[in-house]
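User: what does the whole thing look like in 3D?
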Amino acid sequence: MRLRGLAAGVVLFAVLAAAQVSSHLAVQDARRDLMWRTSSRGVHLPPALLRIVAGEFKGLVSDYLLLEVGSFLGFTQDISSEDWDNVVLSLEQCLSLDPYFQQTYIFVQGHIAWEAKRPQDALRLLDVSRRHRPWDWRPGYFMGFDAYFFLKDYAKAAEYFFDAAKIEGAPVLLAVLGGRFAAKSGRVEAAVALLQSMLEEVPPEDVLRVREIRMRMEALQGVAALERALCDYIAVFREKPNSLDDLITSGFLSAIPSDPYGEGYTYDPETGEIGF
Amino acid sequence: MHTIHYDHVSKAFRYGLRSTTVLHELTLGIEPGEIFGFLGPNGAGKSTAIKLLLDFIRPAGGRMSVDGAVVGKDPFRHLIGYLPETPCFYENLTALETLWFAGRASGMPPGRVRERGAEVLARVDLEDVGRRPVRTYSKGMKQRLGLAMALIHDPEIFILDEPMSGLDPMGRRLVADIIRGLGADRKTIFFSSHILGDVETLCDRIGILNRGRLLFCGSVREIMDRGTNLEEVFIDLIERDERGRCG
Amino acid sequence: MDKIWLLARITFKDGIRHKALYGIAFLGFLLFAANILVTGMFSWELGKVAVDVGLSVVSLSGLLIIFFLSINTVSNDLESRTIYMILARPVSRAQYVVGKYLGLALVILASSAILGACAAGSVKFATFRAPGYIPIDFSWGTFSLALCFLTISLLVLAAVAFFWVSVTTHPFTAVLLSLFSYFIGQNVEAVKTMMLATGVLGENPLVLRAVDYGAWLFPNLAAFDLKTTAAYGLPIDAAYLVWLAVYGISYIGLVLFLTVLVFRRRELG
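Assistant: Here's the predicted 3D structure for the full assembly of 792 residues, as C-alpha cells:
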C-alpha cells in the first residue's frame, strides 16, 4: 500500500520536474528576443508622479533606471529611433529623481550625444546636471563641446565654456575656448585644442568616437592651413581670392589638404569663410 | 485488546539547546466501552500524550494504537471523535458550515450531515446560534461546538482534551451528561481534565500523570480506598512524587 | 479528491468573508478612480497608461492578499491550532496542503476577476473621452491574457509563501521570506542580464553561478508581466504563452510537492 503511494509520489515529482525544466528553458529562450523588443519602454510616468511613487527611494530608483538603460544599450543591436526616445525619457526620469549623479551625465554624453546623435536632447539633459552640480565644470564642458561639434554653434559653445570656466578647478582651456569661440578669429586653433582635450577623456576602446574626433581634428587642421594661406594671400593682394585654387596658383599653398570627410573644403568669396 | 494503547511512549521537547523529556515511557491501556479520566497537574504531559495519539506530534520512542490501527501507519481518524484543548475554528464560518465540513470530511453523505448537524447542535445547546459566524461565539460556545464536531459522525471512540475547560457550571453539567450518555451507549471515552469533581463521578478508571510519569492507573474505587476523596489522594500522590524527586 | 475540494471550499468561504478583503477591495476601487485622474495627466497614449495602472492595481491587490491574508490564514491555522479541527478528521496532511492552497488560489482568482473587470471598466472610461489616444493595436483579448498571466504569477507567489509558512515558526519570518522571494523572482532575469551586459561583477564566476542557480530556483515572475504587451497590443507568440503557463503550473506543483514533504514531518504541538 505504502509502496504504491511512494511510487505515485515519485512519478508525480518526475513529471512536474520534467515539465518545469523544459518550460524553464523554453521560456528563457523565448525571452532572449522578446525581452529586448519591449524593454526599452520604461515606466512612462510624469517626473512629478514618479518622484512621489519612488518616495524615499528616489536615489535607488534612479540608479536602477540607469542600470536598466545601460544594460538595454549594451545588449541591443539595432536601436531604433523610438528606442532612443524611450532611452531619453528614462534618463529624464533618472535625472528628475537624482540630478546630482555624475554617472548619469557621463552616460548622457557618451550615448545620447555621440551614439544617438541627438545633441539637442543631450544638451537638455546635461543642463540639468550642470545646474545641480555647480562645483563641476564637466557638464558645461560637455555642453560646449556638443554645441560646437554637433550643432556647429560657436556662440552657444562659447557661452557654455565661459560659464564652466568660472568654476574652481576648471582647466584653463575652457576660458581660452570661451574667448576664442566668441570671437571670429582663432576659432580653429581653439577647436583643435578642444578636440585634443576631449580625445584624452574618451576611452581608447571607443574606436568610433576616437575616429570621429581625429577626423574632425584633421579637417580643422586642413582649415587652419587654408586659412593661413588665405591670410597670406590677402596680405599681399589686399583682396580675397575667388576660389581656393587661386591659393595654389599664386603659390601660397602647395596643395589643397584632403578633407577627411571626402567632400572637399568650401569657400565663400564674399565672407572669406572656409568650411567643410 | 485495548481500544487505545500506549506502549512505552516517550517524548522530548527542545527549547533552544536544552531538551526536556515530557513523557517517560508511558504505558497505558484503555478498555473498550470504558470512560477513562486522565489526570495530572498543569504541565504533566496530558495534552502531549493526547496529541501524540492524534499523530500531531511524533514520539521519540514507543508506539500507540487505536482499535488495532497503529498510529502513524494505519488510518484511524475515522474511528474517533476528538476535542482539542482550546478549539479554534475558521472564524468567518457559521457553526452549521463548520459541522458540514466535519461531517463530510468524515465521510458522511450530505443528507445525513444536515440531519446530524442540526441534531448535534441541539444536543450541545447551540441550535439558536447555528447560523452565526463563529467569531461571535463565546469561549464556552466554541467549546461546545468543538464537542459537536466530535459527535457528529457518531464514532465509537472519543478523545477529549479538557472538555470542561472554559465552561460555566451549566455547560459543565451539559458536557457531563453527554459523556454519561455516550458511556451508556458503550462508547470508549478517553478524556483529560484537572477538574477532579467531574472525573470522580464520570469515570470507570483513571490515570494520574505527573511530570511525564504515570503514578497511578486503576479504578476510581481503588483510589478511593486510599483516602477520603479523590482530591486528597491526588494531591498526596503528587506531593510524594515531587518529594521523591527533589529529596 | 473530495476532501481537497471540501477544504478548498471552507478556506475560500472563510477567506472571502475576511474583513481585510473589504479593505483591499475598497483600495482597488479607489485606485481605479485615481486611474482616471492619472490618465488625465498625460497628453498622449492615455490608453497605455490606463492599462498600466489598471493591471498594476490588480497585481497590487493580489500581492496584498498574499501577504496580509494568505500567510496569516495559514500561520493562524498553525499557531492557534485551528489545524487540529481539520487534521482530527480523516484528512491527510497532503490533502490539507493542497486543499488549503486551492482555497487561497480561489480567493486570488476571485479578486483578480472582480478587480480585473473594474480595471477594464476604468480603461474604457478613461479612454472614452479620448478615443484617439488608444494605441492602435490594443485588443481586449491581449488585455485578458495579461490579466490571466498576472494571476498565474500571483498563484506562483502564493505557493511560495505557503511553503515558507510551512518551514518557519513565526509568521513574520514567512512574510519576510516571501517578500524576498517576490523581489528575487521579479529581478533575477534583469539582474542576470545587467550583470552580463554591463560587466559589473560579471568577472566573478562564483557570483555568476549563484545568479544562475537563483534563476532556476526562484520563479521568474517578470516573465508573467504582460502589461506592456497588453497596453500596446503587441503580438505574442501562442507557443510562448503555452510554455509560460506550463512553467507556472509545474512550478506551483513542485513547490506544493515540497511543501507536503516538509509539512508531513512538521510537529504540530
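In plain terms: The interface with chain B takes residues 2-3, 6-7, 10-11, 13-14, 17-18, 80-82, 84-91, 267-269 of chain C (CB under 8 Å). Chain C has a mean pLDDT of 85.
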